[in-house]
Design goal:
Its EC number is 3.4.11.-. Belongs to the peptidase M1 family. This is Aminopeptidase. InterPro entries: Aminopeptidase_N-like_N, Aminopeptidase_N-like_N_sf, ERAP1-like_C_dom, M1_APN-typ, Peptidase_M1, Peptidase_M1_aminopeptidases, Peptidase_M1_dom, Peptidase_M4/M1_CTD_sf. The protein is built from 27 helices and 31 strands. The chain is an alpha+beta fold. The longest helix has 22 residues. The two termini are 37 Å apart.
Length: 907
């Protein structure tokens, strides 16, 4: 079972059960004392013992006291601070204020310096902490260790920082709060055979003797602690082009693997400067490729020293997929956007992190589209960001945009809400206020608030000012920006807009309610919803004007506009609004009739994707009968564009899971094959030199499902590629298609074919996971899979983290894999911890009472609580409530009739 097949509700429940609900203000640091400038000195010990090393340092913090106080509260975590080296000096008089006591609060990570005399109001002080030390490990947090392997096989260590959200305090005592911005002078002491880089340019280097050097960097601009950064390594860097260098392991630099990222960086920074109307404030923009396994997120926007996972910077024709190349462009655009949204203007509290991540997540696609216009990135935004946000945000466990907590970083709620939902709401705002007003409003917002910290109301005020200046209040239906936007940033979830047409008096009634995908909950929220529409009977079906024609602000309203009674009506042009749309059944059927004609392309491609995504999700939630999305989906027999195909393919795991126990499963498979065959014929099995960017995604998507469902030509082509490789030593498959082709070749491969690939896997690495091991897991031969698991167990691969990946792959690929997995659990002798993991993985795919009883028995023999009942019972319930009989009846009718002549009857 894939991650997506496990219900979003269950996934979120598991994650969110570990997260406290409300933001605890007691964790906020007092704001009466604020930093002005840090002078930070850090010495790094690069000698590693038992997977750890140490660092030590000192810090001088220039402070401003806005009111009288008898103590100073900083943050620190796991630092050893020599309290005898702490001194506080009044800046003007030079008088020392004696320290009376030190108090530590481990839960809130406070380090409280109590004073004998009070700080004076509106006075400046210098706080010196002359000695602190900490430990570096390979934990991805704070100042930590990472390592890479040279082409000669030697392991080399580096030390790098990652401080977001609240991990600067693990590296030095500080005011680790986004609103407490300051300038930094950073000194790094390093061994002679290492170099150091930081946020700013190197000012000078001092020889300290004993092979120790201290690099001093220019003072930074005012910035929050979480974007402070430094790197100690033996990396090389590319040549400098304008303001840009990229630091990476030497082999990558020598091989030219950073050239693409470097040229992209140069292009992108200029694009961001032009849009914002503000020049980048630093004199340099260095990028760092952190070894893949030693970076918890994709990238981090440290000011002037942006860190990335290696695969987002190292691009080569031999190993980089289309997705890798796109991610290189979008991640650079994302992090560069942060230099303005997040760094220059910072959110005042972590709860407002969407002011940073929402804009960066939107602009990674928008700025990326300016750098690579042929890629159609803004179309991709709709299906890869907005629609996925809607999927997650429809659960009862989601949160509002204004509810981020620092400890949530990297969690599903953070990704889906602060990144995906917020960027979708920003895109919606761009369309209802227009592109130019948003751009001018953001320019004002950045200019008025640079080097400051803000709240959403500051953003809305800047946008309102432009609306007022241009007298464009009609764009908002004479509502205010803040009244509109607060319904989106503070309400949890999103609305379902239901459209009922009165075909007699040519009016429509619009109503809104919060949309829930499965479990309903009491909710009376309302949103200010921008409604744009187009109808078939119009002489000009204009999908380009996405401004709001109607504002739905109440629970329900009736519009007296002339909506015609003939043809279809479509709400939410280009799916610019962050909501789902439901129609009366007559209108749904009219849309299906039109799409199943040859002029289906007259409906905008994004709206075709919206129709598929909305309809299937409405059917899953019980809002419409399943024949609605199934009738609509039939038009896909003519569709070749990836944008509408992807939402259908994204829904297939759920549909396939439901239908896998059906006697009509073969009809279902043929239905899917019918719908995807046109796209397959259009893009072909083999990659072509003139392939459009999205055609490459189409090929991957359709071949994966067609081969999986038994499309004869697809499977035979895959097997032929494998056998040609075996015969002539050349695997003539693109990087994009390699994994999919090998996996589907192995589905029908004989023992000799399988053994050939197994030898390749072992030769590539006898101890580590690679794409060949993954492909071998795709076999649908029970004997082969049993033998495979036993070989892996004997080689010890199965008992490490890579073995988990292989076992997962076997289970998720087929019901044969589930059967083999269950047999293996019964008979294999493995450690209890690994046995528990195997039971968990298999349980996610089980869906019958018999399987539930058997997995209960296996789990009962182990200590601990494995959620077998919850997982399998949930799957059983999903199938019971899935309207499977309705789907089966539709499929029987589909199977009996020619797809072109199937009659769609108006209700």
């Amino acid at each position: 079972m894939t991650f997506r097949q496990l219900s979003p509700i269950l996934i979120v429940f598991i994650i969110c059960s570990l997260i406290n609900g409300d933001i605890d203000s007691s964790f906020n640091i007092p704001k009466n004392v604020k930093p002005i400038r840090y002078t930070l000195t850090v010495e790094t010990n690069m000698e590693i013992h038992e997977n750890s090393s140490t660092f030590n340092g000192s810090v001088i913090i220039e402070l401003f006291s806005s009111q009288a106080a008898s103590n100073i509260t900083l943050h620190e975590r796991n630092l050893d601070i020599n309290r005898h080296t702490i001194k506080l000096i009044h800046y003007i008089s030079g008088t020392e204020l004696k320290v009376s006591n030190i108090e530590t609060d481990e839960e809130r990570e406070f380090y409280i310096i109590h004073l004998e005399d009070e700080l004076l109001t509106n006075e400046y002080y210098n706080l010196t902490i002359g000695e602190f030390s900490g430990v570096m490990t390979y934990d991805f947090v704070g100042f930590y260790l990472a390592k890479y392997t040279t082409k000669s096989g030697e392991e080399r260590n580096i030390a790098v920082t990652d401080f977001q959200p609240t991990d600067a305090r693990k590296a030095f005592p500080c005011f680790d709060d986004p609103s407490m911005k300051a300038a930094f002078v950073i000194n790094i002491i390093r061994p002679a055979n290492y170099t150091a880089v930081s946020n700013e340019e190197l000012l000078y280097t001092e020889d300290l003797g004993n092979d120790r050097f201290m690099d001093t960097f220019k003072q930074t601009v005012i910035m929050p602690t979480y974007v402070v950064a430094y790197l100690v390594s033996d990396y090389k860097h590319t040549q400098r082009i304008e303001r840009h260098r990229i630091f990476a392991k030497p082999d990558a630099v020598d091989n030219g693997e950073l050239d693409y990222a470097l040229s992209t960086a140069v292009e992108t920074l200029k694009v961001v400067e032009e849009y914002t109307g503000l020049n980048y404030t630093n004199t340099k923009m260095d990028l760092v490729a952190v070894p893949e396994e030693y970076f918890k997120l994709q990238a981090m926007e440290n000011w002037g020293l942006v860190t990335y996972k290696e695969r987002f910077l190292l691009i080569s024709n031999e190993t980089s997929t289309t997705e890798d190349i796109q991610s290189c462009v979008t991640n650079i655009a994302h992090e560069f956007s942060h230099q303005w949204f997040g760094n220059l203007v910072t959110f005042k509290e972590w709860r407002y992190m969407w002011l940073s991540e929402g804009f960066a997540s939107y602009f990674e696609f928008y700025f990326g589209s300016l750098v690579r216009p042929s890629w159609r990135l803004m179309d991709l935004f709709t299906i890869t960001v907005l629609q996925k946000a809607l999927e997650f945000d429809s659960t009862v466990y989601t949160e509002s945009m204004n509810n981020y907590k620092p400890r949530d970083i990297g969690s599903m709620p953070t990704l889906q809400i602060s990144y995906y939902k917020a960027s979708s709401v920003i895109r919606m705002a761009q369309h209802f206020v227009t592109f130019d007003i948003l751009k001018n409003g953001l320019r004002r917002y950045l200019k008025e608030n640079k080097f400051k910290s803000t709240e959403p109301k500051d953003l809305y005020s800047a946008l309102q000012a432009i609306i007022d200046e241009e007298n464009a209040h009609d764009l908002l239906g004479n509502n205010s920006v803040i009244s509109i936007m607060e319904t989106w940033d503070s309400n949890t979830g999103f609305p379902l807009v239901t459209v009922h047409r009165n075909y007699n008096n040519k009016t429509i009634t619009l109503s809104q309610e919060r949309f829930f995908s499965e479990k309903e909950d009491e909710n009376n929220s309302t949103w200010y919803i921008p409604i744009s529409y187009v109808y078939q009977a119009s002489s000009n079906r204009d999908f380009s004007d996405t401004r709001a024609a109607i504002w739905l602000v109440e629970k329900s309203m009736t519009s007296a506009d002339d909506f015609k009674s003939n043809g279809w009506l479509l709400i939410n042009k280009q799916q610019t609004g962050y909501y789902r749309v439901n129609y009366d059944l007559i209108n749904w059927n009219r849309l299906a009739l039109f799409l199943n004609k040859n002029d289906f392309h007259e409906i905008h491609v994004i709206n075709r994707a919206q129709i598929i995504d909305d309809a299937f999700n409405l059917a899953r939630s019980g809002k419409v009968p399943y024949y609605v999305p199934l009738n609509l989906s039939k038009y896909l027999v003519k569709e070749t564009d990836y944008i509408p195909i992807e939402p259908f393919v994204r829904f297939l795991p759920h549909l396939s899971f439901v239908m896998s126990s059906s006697e009509k499963y073969d009809i279902y498979r043929n239905y899917v094959i019918d719908l995807l065959s046109a796209a397959y014929d259009y893009v072909g099995f083999n990659e072509k030199p003139n392939d459009a960017h999205l055609d490459k995604y189409t090929r991957k998507a359709v071949i994966e499902w067609l081969c999986k469902f038994g499309h004869a030509e697809c499977r035979n082509n895959a097997l032929r590629k494998l056998r040609e490789w075996k015969e002539n030593g050349i695997l003539s498959v693109s990087v994009d298609m390699k994994q999919i082709v090998l996996c589907n070749a192995i589905r029908i491969a004989n023992t000799n074919d399988w053994e050939f690939l197994y030898e390749k896997a072992v030769r590539k690495s006898s101890t580590q996971y690679n794409e060949y091991y993954a492909a071998l897991a795709c076999s649908e031969n029970e004997f082969i899979l049993n033998d495979y698991l036993n070989r892996l167990l004997n080689s010890t691969i199965l008992l490490n983290k890579d073995g988990k990946k292989i076992f997962n792959k076997i289970i998720e690929e087929s019901d044969v894999g589930v059967k083999v997995g269950m047999n293996f659990i019964r008979n294999a002798i493995v450690p209890e911890e690994m046995q528990a993991y195997f039971i968990f993985v298999v349980s996610r795919k089980c869906k019958t009472e018999k399987q539930l009883e058997e997995m209960r028995l296996l789990a009962s023999a182990l200590p601990g609580d494995i959620p077998v009942d919850e997982l399998i019972s949930y799957n059983i319930e999903i199938i019971k409530e899935s309207h499977k009989e309705d789907i089966e009846n539709w499929l029987l009718k589909y199977n009996a009739e020619n797809i072109e002549s199937l009659n769609i009857v108006e209700v």
